[in-house]
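Students often ask why we bother encoding 3D structure as a string. The short answer is that it lets us treat folding as translation between two languages. Here is a chain of 221 residues written in the first language.
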Amino acid sequence: MNTKDWLQRWQENRIGFHRNEVHPQLVRYWSHCALAKGCHVFVPLCGKSLDLLWLGQQGYRVTGVEISPIAVQAFFQENQLACEVESFGEFQRYRAGTIEILCGDFFALQADMLPKVQGIYDRAALIALDRDLRQRYVEKLKTLFPTPPAILLITLDYPQQAKSGPPFAVPTAEVETLYQPEWRLEQLSRRDLRELEKKDQLPFFEELVFCLQGAGAKQTQ
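And here it is in the second language, the structure alphabet:
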């Protein structure tokens, strides 16, 4: 999906991807990232996700990035958060307490805008991008974070030829290709969503959850 299409979806309120609740797999698996309270967590292509609130409530400093000003403004308005707004390089920075969203193009981010990020939560970024952009997206992460932070990554797997994205299918093999060797991968979950998402016509439609740790990080026992 390109920027124009994404902005148009928000303008037309075609946001079926938005969840009106915190993602249950975030609640269930976030602890696998083993991040201490107070750490800085980055949420790319965040929309107006309630997951930002949950992470903030757990004691983390949270920075999202989102290109749609409609989505950013809705997040703070709908959650009754009074925010400060300021220019921040090519971005507008919206901030309320320990949660901030940078409104602008993810690919325009600079490393000094995201100091000391120790964790990333990606529920809707990687799967929103077509194959070429997925490669560019991960390369950008490597540029932003020379020391790879822990990542909780949620993707989907289904026969791509049977359904056009987004969300796109990103199976385990592609995740391995994109993120190794900088990150070690642990697949935490594979869940059949055909009934829940009304995709019974597909042979499979699965949600995958991964914990990625920097290859140099100590493994937890």
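Translate back mentally: The longest helix spans residues 131-144. Keep this in mind for the problem set.
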